[in-house]
Amino acid sequence: MLKRRVSLRRALFAAVLITSVGLVLTARAQGPTTRNVTLKADQISRGEDGRLVIAVSAAGDLRGALTLTITGTSPTGEITSGEWVLVNTYVEDLFGEGHTEDDGHDEEYPGHHAGERLVQRGSLSGAIQGGTLTLDSDGRISSLAFVQLGISLGSLSFDGVRDGSGSLALWGLGDAASSSGNAAFTF
User: Phi/psi at 23 (nearest 5 deg)?
Assistant: First the structure.
């Protein structure tokens, strides 16, 4: 009977160990994941030092605020230097028991809206590695295309992210209210 208990314990220990090793190897084997984001420009400004700062709202897999600071461009509109940061912070609506955003009730319905919660997932940042900036006939920025972003730093839930890439395009920047764009971040 004692031998049987020891054998059962050893078998159980071996099963737990094999499962744990398998989970670790599976987690390590998973490669980078791409996160897709839709963009809308909020504000475009140019500093006295010539820097171009574009503040953008981000929605989708990474929600929050994206800021692009372009510090260098060539006469042909090639982006030669800059930096960026995406702060993945947003307000999440909370709903009462049995309610959802799409249940057909408005916020006036008793128990529907239970409040809001600030979600702060962290930030990603890095260098702008290239792209194209287009100006309109008045000399104002109208679009960004093929913008390549290097990811070099992450915080909070992105802590440990030190390598990755992103790309984005923004158009309609002559009128920030009607602008739109897309981005993809892989890390």
Answer: -65, -40
